[in-house]
Input
Amino acid sequence: KMKSDKKSVELSEFFSIFPWPDDPDSQQGKEYFERTFKFMEKLLEHQWIKQLLKKKKVKILEICGGAGFGGIALAKILSEKNIDVEILITDLREDALKKAENWSKKMGIKNIKTIIMDAKEIGKLKDKFDIVLLYGLSTPHFNPWELVKLLSSVSSVLNDNGIFIVDESDRRYRIFLINNYQWALAEGSTENKLCVSFQTGYSLKEGTFKRTYINFSKTPIKPVEMETFMWGLSEVCAFMWTFFTDVDLIQLEGIRYFILGYSPRKKIKPNELKEPTLLK
Output
């Protein structure tokens, strides 16, 4: 267990007002898990995954795992195929990881651990994994500089024939071409969350949009600012190609895909990526 930091507090505040399924026991959470399970069934049809599963024992690391929807669904489906699964779920939010631990027990997943950890720091882990999973459309939390650090860290903890699986959507296409970028946006609502966001800034060096999120169904109203990067599919694939010998796509629904990075190059070590002058 590692100590929570300022970023973990910001993320906890954000997810406390943003209408995203984060409780596996809720109706919304159960429906999201069922959808996730179907996505994992599609994943298992890919030739790289089929080849990997011949091992009959698979070690999985889920980063930015939250309540563990992706990792637990994958572990569940592999266990049902009589594959021995070990899974480690990391996130910055302790409350989310506790949900993952409870949910995994209900799903019958025994060999599971959780660690509070920044995804960019996973290169410090001693273990090696067959699969690293980034599920839940989490790439906007990383600007391009951070994504490079993340990919280097991921490649350093994967086995030579390991696979990095990234759940991704083309936001440039959806947000800018289909919906037109909106300065004020109703993000959606659930029973106790009516969330609206407003454009409040932009960082040229990091390429991130700053938006302020407000939950109008909760008093007192406490705005939460979040910086995100609007990734498209092509650049995430290209970044991954830099760190992996091969890259492929699996379409899940609409413009939501799994990006697969196969066999890490391991040419750029995480500790070699010192902060550039531009960002200092």
